[in-house]
Amino acid sequence: MKGAVLFAPHDVRYVEREDPKIVEPTDVILRLSATCVCGSDLWPYRGISPVRRPTPMGHEYVGVVEDVGTSVRTVKKGQFVVGSFFASDDTCPICQAGYQSRCVNAVPMGSLGAQAPYLRVPLADGTLVATPELPPASMIPSLLAASDVLGTGWFAADAAEAGPGKTVVVVGDGAVGLLGVLAAKQMRAERIVLMSRNPDRQQLGREFGATDIVTERGDEGVARIKEMTNGLGAHSVIEAVGTQESMMQALRSTRPGGHLGFVGVAHGVALPGLELFQAEVHLLGGPAPVRRYLPELVDLIWSGKIDPGEVFDLTLPLDQVAEGYKAMDERRAIKTLLAPDGKVAA
Predict the structure, then answer these.
(1) Average pLDDT, whole number, for the chain?
(2) What pairing do the DSSP bridges indicate for beta strands 80-83 and 61-68?
(3) Three-state DSSP class for residue 328
(4) Rounded CA gap, 83 and 143, in Å?
(5) Biggest alpha carbon distance in the chain?
(6) Which residues 6+ apart lie within 8 Å of 278 measured at CB?
(7) Of 155, 229, 244, 308, which has the fewest CB atoms closer than 10 Å, so is most exposed?
(8) Please, what are the domains in the chain?
(9) What is the distance between the alpha carbons of residues 246 and 311, in angstroms, rounded to a whole number?
(10) Which pLDDT belongs to residue 342?
(11) What pLDDT score was predicted for residue 10?
């Protein structure tokens, strides 16, 4: 088969790769209905994360089970499934505590390369969640969002303890930040402030539930949040970028005793110890344990209560993956969906 491979910064190619096959008895092989480009894929694409060798790309996926290993019990051939960007056994003590992304046997799906027509998924019983039946094509983008960006935004809102009576501030207007807005709305936050300068992203943020938009950044952005919260800062803050500026803006926007959920993949972030000490806020973040939330998210999507697939504003055939990366890098697209023939279908 062919699949996306990153050879060097700004050099993604759709080239021949080995066909996936069952390696362990706990594996399954999926025929992918859709995959996509993640904002975190842009770190190596831009050369910020080093690219030392040709690297298969992609870690978000939904599709139909084509083959199953002999030890797989809960997933069957022909089922449509959604999986997390970390494969996990869902039985170890860390998984049982709800942190499947840190499973003692975790396998990062990015190492297997999901931007391709087929994918091997290890630890299938602990990683994949099946839908009640084959979904209509219109639902597949939303189910794909659950594989990472919706689950990550949901974890961020959960970590920030978004809820009734709370003011939630979202730093970052990419797909994760926008779906953090959606999650905060579902958690019944009273006020949701999206920090964004992009009109299209502002509009989608409002559709997802943002009540306010703040265009200022850095110290000016913090001052605006303080002004809106009687000088206190927000109860709940989501950081969804991963830079020093975004992290400090998020920290300084959180009131004492508040909660900061950080899910932006950190690059060059160093928190000043004394300021952190004096801030007296709750910090929780990291790679989202998407598997914890998948059953609930699939149910919300299946019942039509949420439509996170709206974050995909560009759909391309898999063989045009390079354009998908370029469009996101240049901020011409929020998130690129990729389908084997350009059409999404189970």
Answers:
(1) 97
(2) antiparallel
(3) helix
(4) 10
(5) 60
(6) none
(7) 244
(8) 2-148+289-339 (3.90.180.10), 151-285 (3.40.50.720)
(9) 21
(10) 83
(11) 97
